Amino acid sequence: MTHQKPTGRISRFPHLRQDFAASLVVFLVALPLCVGVAVASGVPAELGLVTGIVGGLVTGLMRGSSLQVSGPAAGLTVLVFEAVREFGLPALGVIVLTTGVLQLAMGALRLGRYFRAISVSVVEGMLAGIGLVLIAGQLYAAAGAKAPASGPAKIAGLPEAAVDAFGSAAGSASLVLGAGTVAVLVLWKRLPAMVRTVPGPLAAVGLATLAALLFDLPVATVEVRGLLESVQPPPLGAFGDLASVGLLGTIVAFTLIASAESLFSAAAVDRLHDGPRTAYDKELMAQGAGNAVCGVLGALPMTAVIVRSAANVQAGARTKASRVLHGVWLLLFAALLPDLLAYIPIPALAGILVHAGAKLVPVRSLVALWREHPGEALILVVTAVSIVAVSMFEGVLIGLALAVVKTAWEASHIRLEVVDKGAGPVQAYLSGNATFLRLPKILDSLEALPQDRPVELDLSGLHHLDHACRTALETWAERHSAHGTEPVKVTEPVKARQAAEAATEPARAG
């Protein structure tokens, strides 16, 4: 019996059919999101496509997470908009390029795994804050109005913007189209499976575009400049802005948020499939390479995007070929059919991003988190509110600081047990972690012990005794002994006792 040898194409690309089909699905999901994120970020729509193309052809070819798809993300929209408004479009390339270089350096130094140590509540609070600001800003775009600059002003001005919109034909048409887009996205998953073969975002934008054309609605549409005209590498003079503290702070915020979002997305995607697990340091370098290229081209920053990645896995992708091919389809569309973008209504893209922003606000999980871990829920809420009230960078720093304080407070749990038999010495047992945070409580309890009785202080149950606490305990023991009672007998913590015994061992041997 003879066995036919497999062809070279099948042996080299055994999953080509599955990856090809998945790439088309991801392309159809990514197309409206790339354009929508770019428009919401205040940059030409083509730059969103450029970032999607780089995410497929550059990041997609690199090792890290084989099924994760990268591109412009709704999570960075607010930060990009603020950066462009404050520093100008030429500076965006500098920011994104420097972000990419930092990510490459962190990946090379094997720091990717440490991003998993960032408090999940801070990351979810960060995304929730971004989602709230994104929703507020895009509601203005859906109403055909200009959004105020700050987060509180956006929220406070919504009622007036709604009244103004309903007072004009153009505003009403714009709002109806935006609301219709959100309605399609919400209801799409309830339709028959055959209908849902078309991705929801594409269907919503397609139906909105068709409605705007058929009814000749007076709504704003995407402004088309052309791919080559939109790609503007940052001029050399723009790199001089790196001396600005504000620009450096923005770069740190970009790096932190893009890296954390990408690596958290990778962890989520790993739970969706049984294939190879993510190599976090390599994935961070892949994201860095993609952002460096995007910076050189003056395009939007990229992150791994969970919506596209989940669509990729659910469509049956098996290897990274699917995400590379999705970049090819985006490139062909941008090169051959860019004029189609001019028909897309702005309110439809605003509806896409309002829906995306709502997904970033974890309302249901917040309720459960509050019941089980109220401290973590508080960190999430404070981070989100700080981002809305102040800014992205300061909000994240406030969240991180609050998480550190909470961890330090919980780590300093200490228990004092007093045994007084009525005669003889009073026995005091300290257990847990004795840190300066709990020093007032410790001293109040010890100073309440009878002054005319000898005390035995047992510290063997302590896991940690910091310098401040040791000094305070020694001072208290001296004061207590000064009242004419026997000196306080102190049993050292286990680790300290073992260290002392180890130090005296060489002397005994000698």
TrEMBL record:
It is a multi-pass membrane protein. The keyword Protein biosynthesis does not apply. The chain crosses the membrane at residues 20-40, 87-109, 121-145, 165-188, 200-222, 242-264, 328-357, 377-405. It is found in: Membrane. Residues 16-383 form the SLC26A/SulP transporter domain. Residues 496-510 have a biased composition (Low complexity). Residues 480-510 are annotated as: Disordered. Its main location: membrane. This is MFS superfamily sulfate permease-like transporter.
